[in-house]
UniProtKB/TrEMBL annotation:
Superkingdom classification of source: Bacteria
Biological process per Gene Ontology, one example term: phospholipid biosynthetic process
Required cofactor(s): Mg(2+)
Naturally occurring in which organism (per UniProt): Novacetimonas maltaceti
GO molecular function terms noted in the UniProt entry: ATP binding; kinase activity; metal ion binding
Name of the featured protein: Putative lipid kinase
């Protein structure tokens, strides 16, 4: 298919290690496959959403492709979700969790072939209020320690060493973070925890399995709660994550729901798709707006 496909790539030039060669190969492969390709580069955070809205208004594009990591994908999705517009993904971020979740190829030529093939799937993003404005996310939101790592992550370190920057920052944060009890409500049911991840998918931080079954293709989330406070519990959770054993930990509870509220007596940080959001209290809910992807296959 795709003879004559009109593709528009929205690229975040600051995502990942900022390598240009893979994107150039991706564009060349799309063109070789018969697509016409327009490329728009973002200039600031939030710009990908503006560009996607503008492209949709123009109405001249069959497929809007987000080239970046989960943050860029989420911004493009913010404009597209709930409309018939198809969205492609070229993984060019640091962790690329959604791309791994959906088995989207990283090799530029294979990624282009998949988009040109007409493959498709639908995912159901989540949403979180950001200063009174709903902000979409595609993979997960974190509250407490993991969000603190994102808040404290030095941008330069991330650019230089990619995902390793998270590990280094996490080790420092483990010593400095003050654990606070989080009051969590999932669809009205009350829990207490010291760290919460609200996840659409199975994966976290790259290829690490945080829960056995994701919910990308349906509304709702897996809510992963660490019930023990402290550095040791957090490091144990980190090790379990590396080994894919989080769901087996005795002090981890995993429940399913569509609306999650988190409060803390002392506000703690929140992150969505690896980007800083703000502080608690926070409400995370199903966006109610499906996203049509031009990649992957329906589960
Ligand atoms: N031109 C830009 N300058 C500065 N920030 C930008 C620009 N374009 C986009 N951004 C912001 O950069 C954030 C991070 O981008 P993105 O998530 O795509 O890359 P990443 O963090 O390297 O990858 P991952 O999320 O997979 O780890 C986005 O959420 C977006 O708000």
């Amino acid at each position: 298919m795709a003879e004559g496909m009109r593709a528009c790539i929205i690229v975040n030039p600051t995502a990942g290690r900022r390598r240009r060669a893979p994107l150039a190969r991706f564009i060349a492969a799309l063109r070789a496959g018969g697509a016409s390709v327009q490329v728009l580069a973002t200039r600031h955070a939030g710009h990908a959403e503006e560009l996607a809205r503008q492209v949709m208004r123009d109405g001249t594009t069959d497929c809007i492709i987000a080239a970046g990591g989960d943050g860029t994908i989420a911004e493009v999705a913010q404009a597209i979700a709930g409309t018939p517009q198809r969205m492609g993904i070229f993984p060019a971020g640091s962790a690329n969790v959604l791309a791994r979740e959906l088995a989207i190829p990283f090799a530029p030529e294979t990624a282009a072939r998949l988009i040109l093939s007409g493959a498709g799937t639908t995912i159901w993003p989540g949403v979180v209020e950001d200063a009174g404005r709903p902000r979409l996310f595609v993979q997960m939101a974190g509250i407490g320690f993991d969000a603190c790592v994102v808040h404290w992550l030095p941008a330069l370190l991330k650019r230089m060493v990619g995902r390793t920057a998270y590990v280094l920052t996490m080790l420092g944060a483990a010593l400095r973070y003050r654990f606070t009890t989080l009051d969590v409500r999932v669809d009205g049911n009350a829990y207490r925890a010291h760290g919460v991840v609200v996840s659409k998918g199975r994966l976290y931080g790259g290829r690490f399995v945080i829960c056995p079954h994701g919910m990308q293709h349906e509304a709702g989330f897996r809510v992963i709660m660490l019930e023990t406070a402290g550095v040791l519990a957090t490091l144990r959770m980190g090790c379990a994550l590396l080994l894919g054993r989080v769901a087996h930990m005795r002090d981890v509870r995993i429940v399913t729901g569509r609306c999650v509220d988190v409060h803390a007596a002392t506000p703690v940080p929140v992150q969505v798709d690896g980007d800083v959001l703000g502080m608690t209290p926070v409400r995370i809910r199903d966006a109610g707006r499906p996203l049509r992807l031009a990649v992957g296959r329906d589960a």
